[in-house]
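#struct-help
A.M.: can someone run this one for me? Single chain, 280 residues.
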Amino acid sequence: VVKGFGQLALYGWKPRRTIVFASWDAEEQGLIGSTEWAEEHADWLTKNAIAYLNVDIAATGLEFECAATPSLAAAVREAAAQVPSPTGNGTVLDRWVETSKSSTPAVDPLGSGSDFTPFLQHLGIASVDMTHRPKGGAYGLYHSAYDSFDYMRRFGDPGFKASLATARILGTLALDIANTKLLPLNFSEYAHALHTRVPSLVAKSVALCGASFDLDVSPLQAAVAKFLTSAVEVEVERQTLLSPTASALSVNDFNSRLMMTERRFLNPTGLPARTAGGFK
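D.P.: on it. Structure tokens below:
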């Protein structure tokens, strides 16, 4: 990916927005490299970072899999539509649609466990994590003595076609975020994701606390409905700002509001019972 962007730079290309490439140390020891860097540059990231794109394991199979903040889901699908599938048939999106049995493949929610954690959970930066996995998702050699370059070369990803597909999606998505006039952050999809997860919250509460536990989610449902209304208004505004006559001031204001929306989900004091305040 970095070499590809380097070639573009050699031809005189410059992105509209800054792109920072990073390779982290000590992920397995507790996300140390990424966390230390994110904490050290927290003020700059909070003011300027649009998105964090993560690849932990580029490929262990041929099936594309992605987890992201919902605002980036549509952009991921658009990037996947531009990359040939490592199966040799169609694009990555075509294959994703086929395996998911949906014309709009779902993007999973992000949790923790990889280097996106400090950027999303601590700083509120929209994030994505992508890979290619075996059919069924299982990779039985993970962290074993057999989890080697030789295995990947011979069996896991012969020709490194899936690894290349992941890299191409990552690069295409980075190009999109760095270059488009209006940031490709879609909050209508975010609102729909929140709406579908409220029943899941209720079900988990019952499972943890028993059927007699009365959880009133009506304030949450009202907030989600209000968020959806605002998201629709934002998309209407986006169409207006696509006009060549839109002022630079209006475009910059719009992009700034999109970028900062994820930050508004943070709890400044951190999650309850997490005294260090790392997860917000």
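A.M.: thanks! The chain has a mean pLDDT of 93.
D.P.: also worth noting: Residues 218-241 form the longest helix (24 residues).
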